[in-house]
């Protein structure tokens, strides 16, 4: 068997030499589009990757599922950064305030909320949605860490506190859509610091 016959698709993928696009290429392209405020359009994405829409949908499920994963990857990465930045004091209130500020300034979120407000609200705030469940879990982790350090009161059950904190952040992120008002992270900070003390 010569050397050419021994090179498998797995070998090429592991070495990054595969010329065919993969599901991770689709995910990376969608993340790039979101980061720059460009709409994540399935036909445009398929064209960019040189695959047909059927292949793209087989890879990622639906547009909603793809955008959920893009949003979650950005959220998780952002909160990992907040955890390292916030060394002293309650981290949950500081992280959630920074999240409200950063989401309101993010080109992709601004585009999504401006162009597809009902879709965005449903995707991000529905308690039956994948994003919302993960977001609540992340907030529970932050509050639990603060409680373990004796920085947050234990008067309110953890589930209720996490749910309330999530709804507060959403209220200050989606103010443009909900009440046609400019979002203001400083107002969210006041409420979150009182709630998470």
Question: Would you give an account of this structure?
Answer:
Residues 91-197 form the QsdR TetR regulatory C-terminal domain. InterPro entries: Homeodomain-like_sf, TetR_C_36. This is QsdR TetR regulatory C-terminal domain-containing protein. It comes from Umezawaea tangerina. It holds the Pfam family TetR_C_36. With 197 residues, the protein is mainly alpha-helical. The chain has 2 domains: 3-60, no CATH class; 63-195, Orthogonal Bundle (Tetracycline Repressor, domain 2). Helix content is 75%, strand content 0%. The protein contains 13 helices and no strands. Helix 3 packs across helix 6, helix 4 (42-49) packs across helix 5 and helix 7 runs parallel beside helix 11 (158-173). The longest helix is centred in the middle third of the chain and has 23 residues, at 63-85. It starts with a helix and ends with a helix. The relative contact order is 0.11. The mean pLDDT is 89.
Could you give a short description of this structure?
With 197 residues, this protein is mainly alpha-helical. It is 75% helix and 0% strand.
């Amino acid at each position: 068997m010569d050397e050419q016959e021994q090179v498998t698709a797995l070998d090429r993928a592991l070495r990054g030499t595969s010329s065919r696009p993969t599901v991770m290429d689709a995910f990376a392209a969608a993340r790039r589009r979101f980061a720059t405020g460009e709409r994540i359009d399935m036909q445009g994405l398929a064209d960019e990757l040189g695959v047909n829409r059927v292949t793209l949908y087989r890879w990622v499920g639906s547009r909603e599922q793809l955008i959920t994963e893009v949003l979650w990857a950005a959220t998780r990465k952002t909160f990992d950064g907040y955890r390292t930045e916030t060394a002293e004091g309650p981290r949950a209130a500081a992280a959630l305030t920074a999240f409200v500020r950063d989401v309101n300034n993010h080109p992709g979120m601004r585009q999504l909320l401006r162009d597809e407000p009902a879709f965005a609200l449903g995707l991000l705030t529905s308690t039956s949605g994948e994003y919302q469940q993960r977001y609540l879990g992340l907030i529970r982790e932050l509050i639990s860490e603060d409680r373990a350090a004796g920085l947050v009161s234990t008067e309110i059950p953890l589930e209720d506190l996490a749910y309330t904190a999530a709804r507060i952040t959403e209220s200050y992120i989606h103010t443009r859509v909900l009440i046609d008002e400019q979002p203001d992270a400083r107002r969210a900070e006041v409420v979150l610091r009182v709630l998470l003390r």
